Amino acid sequence: MVVPDSDVPPQHTGSVQQTPVHLSPLLTDLYQLSMLHGYWHHGMHQQQAVFDLYFRRSPYGGGYAVWAGLENALEYVEQLRFGTDAVRYLESLNLFDAAFLEALRGWRFSGRIESFPEGSVVFAHEPLLTVTAPLWEAQLIETALLNTLNFQTLVATKAARCVSVAGGGSVIEFGARRAQGPDGALSASRAAFIGGAAATSNVLAGQRYGLPVVGTHAHAWVESFPDELTAFRAYAELHPASTTLLLDTVNTLASGLPNALTVAQELRGRGTELRAVRLDSGDLAYLSRRVRAALDAAGFPDVKIMASNDLSENVIQSLISEGARLDIYAVGTQLVTGGGEGGGALGGVYKLAELDGQPRMKLTGDPAKTSLPGRKRVWRAHSSHQQLAWDVVSLGSQEEPPSVGERVSDPANPLRRSRLPAGLSWENPRQTVMEAGRRVTAPEALEDLQRRARGECSRLPEGTLRLLNPHTYRVSLSADLQTAREQLISRLEDGLGDTDSGTA
Amino acid sequence: MVVPDSDVPPQHTGSVQQTPVHLSPLLTDLYQLSMLHGYWHHGMHQQQAVFDLYFRRSPYGGGYAVWAGLENALEYVEQLRFGTDAVRYLESLNLFDAAFLEALRGWRFSGRIESFPEGSVVFAHEPLLTVTAPLWEAQLIETALLNTLNFQTLVATKAARCVSVAGGGSVIEFGARRAQGPDGALSASRAAFIGGAAATSNVLAGQRYGLPVVGTHAHAWVESFPDELTAFRAYAELHPASTTLLLDTVNTLASGLPNALTVAQELRGRGTELRAVRLDSGDLAYLSRRVRAALDAAGFPDVKIMASNDLSENVIQSLISEGARLDIYAVGTQLVTGGGEGGGALGGVYKLAELDGQPRMKLTGDPAKTSLPGRKRVWRAHSSHQQLAWDVVSLGSQEEPPSVGERVSDPANPLRRSRLPAGLSWENPRQTVMEAGRRVTAPEALEDLQRRARGECSRLPEGTLRLLNPHTYRVSLSADLQTAREQLISRLEDGLGDTDSGTA
């Protein structure tokens, strides 16, 4: 997917010899380059570093996330090089030694990346992706990794939430016009599909990612004809096998519905069936019941009803609870921007865990922001019913699964401890996806990622999918890791007097 | 800016002969192409159409917006072509006639675009941009126009809001890692600068758009050295003239501050000055006062204090009201995603206003969503003190400015009428930016757009900049336009019986 086919013949793009935005080495914060410069200057850049990428809170106040964006992140890392123009630009900033800039030309990512497979269900506080590489390699890729994985995980999770409450109805992504930039739209379409969206309206996403594309018509279509019936007929004439009619340009019940019924009859007379009608304003629960009843009464029980107009998982849930009769939910703005309660961004972070064989951590005044030091491993338990049951983060040196009765602790609150129960089967849910800078797993089809996400969502403990105040899926620290963390905190705090508290 | 210099030598991108995402004709919703097909099939595609782009509510519950993204939108429209691969993809969908696909190869935008200049302050309900072109040209570009202009206007407005409460402090954009995709980050950096951000951390945005880039260092820098003081010294050694030290890796007051003071003294001994310190956690109001006092007492009144950590215009305002002593506000997530109250997306729409000489409108059950029919003109009044005072949308045929005493009405509520006062000077704030498909205005420097935005914000009526419940800037419909709208509504409603109301 890095190298899609050209849209225009080469002669049209002859002068557009640019690195695509998403592959540029400059897609980074300046401070990464300043730090690289420093590490290089002080001869530290080749020290082996371990960084973990994780988030501290599930998006939207929910209880899980769907991990997405990995494929794009790996593409980015694998091909990353500093070409002449990037170096020339950095030179123009007058911030960097010439010898450092020369060294950048030899920069390659040569490290290892472990990650949950894309489409996995993941939780707060566990290392989702771990980079092991020379310090200046691991540091540089932080911004792009976070940019790609934060956003796609946010959108995939939103899609999964919409699907989880749609009661078997389809969710489709209709957000291109409200997405955050052209590539934001494209990434959003991809991520929404992984999270469970059945299709997108974004044609470019269809082309680039092979996603199913769908669409109806706009109000402008109806307004372009002398009257609505003429407009509906004209549309159906052209797309007899795939006609969805938008009912609300004039008035949904008084005009759109009877005209759609007329066209449905006419289509049937010609041997095809109207596919769907779309409601885009007004009281969707009420209108959908009226429209369903009218379609059924007229002998069209198979015509689907699609809803649009600022939908979100909360709106879908509320429509269903009010008895709406909807088959397809076209979700736009809220899906592609990851909008809503606690939304808009996933606060994923990328923290140094080990350098040159020594565990590292960020302390700070805020305990919830204290990172987990050292190389770690994630263990995931399934119950005997194949339900996901418990994730444990252990020291990387722990080669055996957690044991029954082990006392584990809450990552955000070490006073909350539990003993691991019997009856769990443990596995390592992460895999090595890059080794020596080269990908070692094949790209997966988006359909497979969607299938993985759907499968894992269906195996979550009851209540975990709930939109608000969900059951908290257990993520714990192993006893050894908790001990190691406390020891490092004590060492770092030694000798600190004054504190950062405003009440001190 | 469409054709930035290459980052890598051509041989590296030889196989990446793709149209950049933001220039593809497939960056559109499928239904646009379905409608184009239909217009073409029914011989309507060359009918002259007028579409208006506008929004119905200012973002974030505020009273204005800063218009941004125009340059990118015009670049897109001017170069838009259907190349072989785009056509081949559309062919593969089996939705379109071969003759239509052949016709698409000849598709060009040949129309006119009028718009507020980029960086203008704009308001709800007024046509911000008007496209006059053959129907199939005007229809196709809807998705890309909305995508580009909605998002950049959202971010530029957020930046302006942050600047408006920063009391002379600088706002800088630090959001790349939380932005919505790589290009979302780039667009956001551009728009934030227009809205008043002084600089960005995004190096790619620096290169592509010539923006000032800034940065400090991360916690990982400190953790990579044996201790914080060593880390600070190492950083200052490399960037003596531009050192900003992050204070909270261990403990802001107990460790970061005294170590920064040591380094500040050492730098001064070598003839340079520490530039700034950065606070990234804890009670920023309290910590900034303590740090300011310590810096002042030690003889460093010119060292700036920068704050980061989930800032927004509301947080900045609250910090200042609590007596924080901050000079630089690094705003990330909230700025680049346009997050917060009513944020996440600007609900800009693009509505057909006239076709083939006849006014058109969307009626629907929701009066606030009823569009303004016909060709229109925008008039903007300045008071004698050069304050922006009043915007009036009139019929396009009105060649004279609105007159004193004219009865104008509220776009969302025709019952709210006012008479235009004396003492106003009227002008046409929009300009023709594209004619016959070619741009007729030169691209403007981003500094000029920022200057325009800052100037217009400073000339808004008192209270309009307020973050919440601002003074409502007057935007009215001329008497003639209101009459024309009512007549068309009556005509459309003729003969409608049943209604869409849930209580009917």
Terminal residue distance of chain A: 55 Å
Just name the CATH architecture of the domain at 156-336 in chain A: Alpha-Beta Barrel
CATH superfamily membership of the domain at 156-336 in chain A = Aldolase class I
Q: What name is given to the CATH topology of the domain at 156-336 in chain A?
A: TIM Barrel
Q: How many DSSP H or I helices of chain A? A: 17
| Rg estimate of chain A, integer Å | 26 Å
Q: For this entry, what is the oligomeric state of its chains? A: homodimer
The coarse silhouette of chain A is: globular
State the low-pLDDT regions of chain A, or none: 1-18
Number of strands of chain A: 21
Question: Pair with the most extensive interface?
Answer: A-B, 145 and 145 residues
Helix proportion of residues of chain A, in percent? 25-40%
Strand content of chain A: 15-25%
**Average pLDDT number of chain A:** 90
| Secondary-structure-derived class of chain A | alpha/beta
Largest sheet of chain A: 7 strands, antiparallel
Q: Give the neighbour order of strands across the main sheet of chain A.
A: 13-12-1-5-3-19-20
CATH class of the domain at 156-336 in chain A: Alpha Beta
